[in-house]
Amino acid sequence: MAIMRPHGSVSVLETALLVLLAGFQQCVSAHTDTLLPPEVSQPNGALYGVCKVKPSSTLPDGLPKIYGRVLFKQHPSQGKLQVLLSFSGFPTEGSPEYRAVHIYQYGDLSRGCDSTGGHYNPYGVDHPNHPGDFGNFLPQQGKISALIESDATLFGVTSVFGRSVVIHEREDDLGLGGNPGSLLDGNAGRRLACCVIGVASSKLWNMQYKLYK
């Protein structure tokens, strides 16, 4: 015989299940929070990255020696990755040439910029659709200064932390070169300079951002 109970009442078993479910949800939430780097606890909840650019150790004589810095800022749940580029060392004589800048797969500089692998390409697509394909930049008086947005990310399994930024000898053909190399790296030529992306505080970003604006 079925045991009838008043409408709206909750059995001991149901109460226990509700308590167990609430505890599980709290555990999941706490575990999710621990997956975020501790730097996210900064007042504005953003992550910051920095990359100090130096010439490749395998750079042949006669090519420009590029120095500079790349800064990154991203909120965990809003907006794209913001990137500040600041380079110097390009030729100041003659007509300036566009230079390509990309994120590369590895932060391995054991053979200069040549050991950084291929383009950072977590989704297995053709260039120029890689998240770290920053594009082309035209030096002014030997310098590049730019603020851009990128589809790359500082968060999760596709984070660019520990990867590298590479500045190229030539212009990126944006995948229109009609050959296999165009779909890999845009036929951008030698890797002039590079750096490894690391975690940073907000200080560098805030200082450089003010100068840029």
Task: Note down, in words, how this protein is organized.
- This protein is an alpha+beta fold and 213 residues long.
- It folds into two domains: 10-36; 42-212, Immunoglobulin-like (Sandwich), CATH 2.60.40.200.
- It is 19% helix and 29% strand.
- β2 and β3 form a beta hairpin.
- The model is unreliable at 1-8 and 16-34 (pLDDT under 50).
Number of strands: 10
Q: Mind telling me the CATH superfamily name of the largest domain?
A: Superoxide dismutase, copper/zinc binding domain
Mean pLDDT across residues: 86
**Would you tell me which CATH topology of the largest domain applies?**
Immunoglobulin-like
Q: Mind summarizing the main beta sheet?
A: 9 strands, antiparallel
SS strand fraction: 25-35%
In which range does the helix fraction lie? 10-25%
Second CATH tier, the architecture of the largest domain: Sandwich
Spatial gap, N to C terminus = 78 Å
Order of helices and strands: HEEEEEEEEHEEH
